[in-house]
Amino acid sequence: MRKLFPIALMLCAVFSLSSFAPVRSDAPLIKKSAYRYSFPITGTTDGTPGAGTQAGIIAYEINGSGTIPSSITFRTLSGTSLGTYPFSLSSPGNYLAGGMKTQTSITAVYFHISTACGTGYCLEFIGGV
Questions:
Q1: What's the structural domain count of the chain?
Q2: Is the peptide bond before 40 cis (omega within 30 degrees of 0)?
Q3: Which helix (H) or strand (E) segment is 111 a member of?
Q4: Residue 19 lies in a domain
Q5: For residues 37 and 119, what is the distance between their CA atoms, to the nearest angstrom?
Q6: Between 31 and 55, whose confidence is greater?
Q7: Which domain covers residue 104, as residue numbers?
Q8: 69 prior amide bond cis, ω within 30
Q9: Is residue 84 included in any domain, yes or no?
Q10: Is the pTM of this model over 0.70?
Q11: Pairing label, strands 81-86, 56-65
């Protein structure tokens, strides 16, 4: 039995390694591509449509050029403007807009360009309802 163990081990190794194949020279390459999005970017979020009013859903629209956001505009669902606020660069690929708290209950909006997000950007509303 002792003499059969090395032979059995060798047969298992040969059988196991026989499924490996060398890489073909025409194998497809995975190419990295940047996610592209276009402005305006629209959506809704929780907020208060004006100072002293009840919390609800407000709409936003982000404008910009290329991959860089320039401003965000908030509106009530009926279309009343709650103001337009500019984005400023806070660090490479990160943009911050602030000053909308009295109109929307949102302290700031953070726009982060990242391929880790499915759309190519992450959007964070800070200090909302």
A1: 1
A2: yes
A3: strand 108-113
A4: no
A5: 7
A6: 55
A7: 41-126
A8: no
A9: yes
A10: no
A11: unpaired
